[in-house]
Input
Amino acid sequence: MLASKILVPTLRDVPAEAEIISHQLLLRAGFMRKAAAGVYTLLPMGYRVVNKIIKIVQEEMNKADGQELLLPIIQPAELWLESGRWHVYGAELFRLKDRHNRDFCLGPTHEEIITDLVKKEVSSYKQLPLLLYQIQNKYRDERRPRFGLMRSREFIMKDLYSFDRDEAGLEISYQKMFKAYTNVFQRCGLKFRPVEADSGAIGGNRSHEFVVLAGSGEAEIVYCEACDYAANVERAEAVYSAINEEDREKQLEKVVTPNMKTIGEITQFLQVSPEKCLKTLVYLADGKPVAVVVRGDREVNEIKLKNKLECLELELANDETVKELAGVPVGFIGPVGLKNVPIYLDEEASLVVNGVAGANEGDHHFINVNYPRDYQAQLVADFRLVGAGDPCPVCRGTLLSARGIEVGQIFKLGTKYSEAMEATFLDEHGKKQYMVMGCYGIGITRTMAASVEQNYDEKGIIWPMSIAPFQVVVVPVSNKDGEQMKAAQTIYRQLSEQGMEVILDDRDERAGVKFADADLIGYPLRVTVGKKTVQEGTVDIRVRRDGRELTVAIGQVVEEITALIERGL
Ligand code: ATP
Ligand code: MG
Output
């Protein structure tokens, strides 16, 4: 490919709209352009990378017995009504009507369509297991599309669905996918971790996320220093220990706390530590108020709360709503004597002896609050966010935390969809059974962005060889020098003939501009053809990742480059 012909509109300046590095660099290096909020065009360079990732994914899915097909993007509402998700999916679902006023949606994921297909086409245990996948655009009207391809409203996903006879079969399919995902992300050159994950609105009972470690990531994970435990904080289990320095319950007492609204103010004023305080937060769960009580030094894990409440929407109530409900400002609300609002009590908070809590009366708090002596709860469970420093739930070692980007997730769905949609098969005894399902997604475009987050320097992107848009760029220093151009063309042709993906920078630009673009775009290898080539018959090969330069004879270029690629640079 000739650089003068390919559409790579590089930019010198950082686009103002882009906050994180991958978003900035993919725009600057001419890999993509924005069409609307969260909607992007992939330019030739971007699409080449995407296709590289797709090829790796296809190879690994096929190796794990996946069969590729293509499901429709437009899906009829009836199927979503059947599964029960038409009303559950909420505002993220792009809904549309056809000319006959029939409801459709643009697929954000494809459990319904595929379950319907398999239920109609598969009837015997002999046809199972079945692993079907597709690679296609997905549509989600995200609340906050941002970071370019990282959280967009149209994006490319690989989604595979497994259909098994029983749980044991599902476990095998799940393990196959776990391994295939590990291979995919390894081959893409990413530093990642599989972590235990919440299974969220899709349901099911076991899930892992594959998280690429990056400071800009939206996912927060905790992992153990001492063992293999790693989990998304949304999911991470809290380990409880009571504070035992005083086990005798003292008498409940109301004290005056003028204007002391925050945990910080209260602890100072009453000279108590935050872990002795009970923090009460009011949420609206599908519009209904609920109170959550955690220790003063803890935060509420809204995902755990949402799962326990089995609600669709959960939001923190604003000050006015709290005042209306409890008759006091937020800072003075507490579990003792709280009326009309059910209390969801964090297990750790339930163990606090002689705690401090708002008295549901302006400028007053209770001291010596004890559960269950002084208040009751609708449910006592794990409602708190785990963080660095917490004990590991497996080995009691210390947890560390890190940020990352979720590039893939695998779920055990069980019979959730097959029951809702009546997807059954006949087992070896002729008995009807529900198919046992799993679903497995990889964000292809997000994976491209995640790779940039891990592979860049001040000059631009540094693509891993496996997903680079081109492996080598050949740069003649001066276009005007006919001999240089001829040598460059020969090298370009020889490398291409070896099956390498090569670009020849034949543009009539200064050498500095060509070098800067090569660094920005991130080709793993650059071959510079200059005066030396003409005079001494040598070229310089430069490795983008570490700046290494090798001077080799023209006749050796193909061999050297092949060796560099084989050695992984
Ligand atoms: P997130 O928590 O980041 O919203 P998710 O749990 O909704 O992700 P899944 O439904 O598991 O995502 O989708 C599978 C994969 O698709 C994700 O692991 C991610 O790589 C990708 N993905 C999901 N949402 C987006 C998006 N808005 N933009 C780009 N990729 C996405
Ligand atoms: Mg999502």
Remarks:
- The first strand starts at residue 32 and ends at 36.
- The chain has a mean pLDDT of 94.
- DSSP finds 15 helices and 31 strands in the chain.
